[in-house]
Amino acid sequence: MSELPDEKGCTEESCLKPGERLVHITVDGKDIPIGRFVQGFIMSTVVGMLSSLKKVDVKEGSQIEIRLRYRR
User: Fold this and answer.
1) pLDDT tens-digit map of 32-51
2) What is the total count of domains within the chain?
3) What span, in angstroms and rounded, lies between the C-alpha atoms of 38 and 9?
4) Is residue 61 situated within a structural domain?
5) In a domain, 59, yes or no
6) What is the extent of the structural domain holding 27?
7) What is the pLDDT of residues 5-23, one digit of tens each?
8) Does the structure show a pLDDT above 80 at 3?
C-alpha cells in the first residue's frame, strides 16, 4: 500500500470511492463491513508481516489471500 500522495494529493486508502474496498473479510460466508481505517490497519499489518519473510516479494498491486479456520 502506497503511503505517498499521488498527483491528486491522496493515498490509495484516502482516495477510495464510497463503498470501494481493498480489504474484504467474510466469516462463515457472511461479508463483514469494515471502514477505511480498519482496512488500512489490516493491510499495513499483513503487508508488514509478509514483507519480513524471506522469499516473499509484496509489490504494489499484489493480491494477498489469507484463509483461516479458527480453532481454540
Assistant:
1) 999 888 998 999 999 999 99
2) 1
3) 21
4) no
5) no
6) 1-53
7) 455 556 555 566 666 788 9
8) no
